[in-house]
Design goal:
10 strands; 2 domains
Length: about 280
C-alpha cells in the first residue's frame, strides 16, 4: 500500500516538473490557437493559416526569433478550451470578458478601456450603419436612431444584434435576418434601404453574394469593439511572461513605425475590402 502511494506521489511530482519545464523552456515553440474569424484569422484556399492577426503575429514572432505553431482548425469553444487546459499559449482575436479572466491574461487597459482604444488592440470591429448611393442624401444627416423617426425607412439587421431592443423601443420599421447573406440580398433587391453590420463582415457578405460594394455608403459607426492577441494566464510568470512583454513591446514599435497599418492595408487589399477608418486612429 505504502509502495503504491509513493509511486502515485512520484508520478505527480514528475508531471508537475514536466509542466514547469514546458512553460519555462525557452527552446520550445509557442502554441497558438484560434478559429476561423474572417478577416482576422482563417484558412485560405490552400488550407494555410491566413488573416490580419495571423500576419501581425507572424511578423512579431519572427522578429523575436521564437518558433510557433498555429492551429485555426478549431471551433471557438475548442480554441478556448485548449488555452484553459494549458495546451496552448496564445489565442487569436479574443475580446475581453470577465468569464475568460481565469485562463487568459488581460492588462488593466485591456479590461477597462472605454472610449480610448487600448494600445494593445490589434483588431477592430466597427458596427456601422450603411445605406446606398441612391439614399445617401435622404439619410446623410443621421446621428442617432431617433433621426429615423418619421422618415420612410426600412432598416435591416441580423437577428439577436445588440441594437434590436433600442430599435424596437423607438418603433422603427426594421426587418431581421438569420444571416448576413440574406440581409445583403434584401438590401440589393431594394427590400431595405438601411442595414447595420460589422464593417468587415458587410463587405465580405457583399462579395460572397456576388454584388458590388460600389453602391455601399457608410453613414455612421454606431459602436467600436476591439480584439487582441491574448496570452494564457500562465504568462503571469516565467519564460512566457517575458515572451508576452516582448510581444507587446514589438507591437508598440510596429504601431509607431507605421508597419502595422502597412500590414493592415496589404491584407485588406488582398481581400478586396476597404480598411475600416478606426485603424488609422490607432
Amino acid at each position: 500500500m505504502r509502495k503504491n502511494i509513493l509511486i502515485i506521489i512520484g508520478a505527480m511530482i514528475t508531471i508537475a516538473i514536466m509542466i514547469i519545464f514546458i512553460y519555462n523552456n525557452p527552446d520550445r515553440e509557442l502554441i497558438i490557437v484560434g478559429s476561423e474569424f474572417y478577416p482576422d484569422s482563417y484558412l485560405n484556399e490552400a488550407g494555410e493559416v491566413d488573416g490580419v492577426l495571423v500576419e501581425v503575429t507572424r511578423v512579431i514572432l519572427d522578429k523575436m526569433k521564437i518558433p510557433y505553431n498555429m492551429n485555426l482548425d478549431l471551433t471557438w469553444e475548442d480554441a478556448q478550451q485548449e488555452v484553459r487546459g494549458r495546451n496552448a499559449d496564445i489565442i487569436l482575436s479574443a475580446s475581453h470578458k470577465e468569464s475568460r479572466e481565469n485562463f487568459l491574461y488581460y492588462t488593466e487597459e485591456q479590461k477597462n478601456w472605454r472610449d480610448k482604444l487600448p494600445k494593445t488592440a490589434q483588431s477592430l470591429y466597427a458596427y456601422t450603419l450603411f445605406t446606398n448611393k441612391k439614399n445617401e442624401e435622404k439619410f446623410g444627416n443621421f446621428t442617432e436612431f431617433k433621426d429615423l423617426i418619421g422618415t420612410n425607412h426600412r432598416l435591416g439587421m441580423i437577428e439577436e444584434m445588440s441594437f434590436v431592443d433600442e430599435v424596437i423601443d423607438l418603433g422603427l420599421n426594421f426587418y431581421s435576418y438569420k444571416n448576413g447573406e440574406d440581409m445583403i440580398k434584401a438590401f440589393y433587391n431594394d427590400e431595405i434601404d438601411l442595414l447595420i453590420g460589422i464593417n468587415n463582415d458587410v463587405y465580405v457578405f457583399v462579395a460572397n453574394s456576388g454584388f458590388s460594394s460600389d453602391e455601399l455608403v457608410e453613414l455612421k459607426t454606431l459602436d467600436t469593439r476591439v480584439a487582441f492577441v491574448l496570452f494564457s494566464k500562465e504568462s503571469e510568470k516565467g519564460w512566457l511572461k517575458k515572451v508576452r512583454e516582448d510581444f507587446y513591446k514589438e507591437f508598440s514599435k510596429m504601431l509607431k513605425s507605421g508597419e502595422y497599418i502597412e500590414i493592415i492595408e496589404r491584407e485588406y487589399a488582398d481581400m478586396k475590402i476597404p480598411v475600416p477608418k478606426g485603424y488609422y486612429e490607432m
